[in-house]
Amino acid sequence: MRKLIGVIAVISIIIAAFGIRNTVIREREQKVKMIEVYGFEDGYDFMIGKHEITYLQYERYTAELKDKDVSSHTVPGDRYPVKSISWIQAVNFCNWLSSKEKLACAYDDDYNLIDSNGQATKDISKVIGYRLPTEREWEFAAVGATKTKGFKYSSSDDPDQAGWYRYNSGEKYLIQSSDRATIISNGCKPHETGLKVANEIGLYDMSGNLWEWVQDYYYEMKALKTDIFRDMPSSQTAYLRTIKGGSWFDGEESMEITSREGWNEYSSSSDTIGFRLARTIIPVRKGIDKDD
Fold it and tell me: How many Å apart are CA 219 and CA 253, to the nearest integer?
């Protein structure tokens, strides 16, 4: 009897240890990994997500807030990028994560960018919390920043190495097929993050998989440094925000780093759109120790 009790105790310890290990692994996977980007031509440094935000990471947010606003589509797996997310949902996630990490939020209740004192600002270098990258930041990171090799797509001149798009995202490779019915019947879909080649600074899926929201309103012409924060466009394009990078459903031209489209910031109807995070790297003031 004593021997049986001892065996049961050992088994219980093993099961508990296994459970703890799985919990640690899951918590580690929930962390948003950021890549530091230096040498940005706009005069400040920033961080950008190594991967698109995944279902596992977004699930933590919706579970805590009991938010049923997340996509109603069947969840394919923890490491898949979360899709069918509106611009508004994405920035709400940014503020939630900032609060979780005790950072000043990047957005106010009207979705204006704000500084550490909660004041609206057009100087993004003063925004501390998690936010969406600007289009200029996104492109600078996608080309590999100062380490760029000048690829057409992020990480390669070969679209099949760079990312998932309509020809390679399904059960079989499609040859020049743009018919929606063919794409859907072939099982084309997003894939787990990080399966394609990383770019020069270690970013995955900047080309293909899902379009990604950026901060900027959508205009026919890309914003310059001096007018990134222009007011809302005319009524014809009001509420359109820029998306970048292409998706599993689109052709390789959408994966080009300079490619861009506009989408209504309130809409979460597209299963081709996700997002990744950015943060400004706030310089340490002279005479102040980093550990203070």
Answer: 19
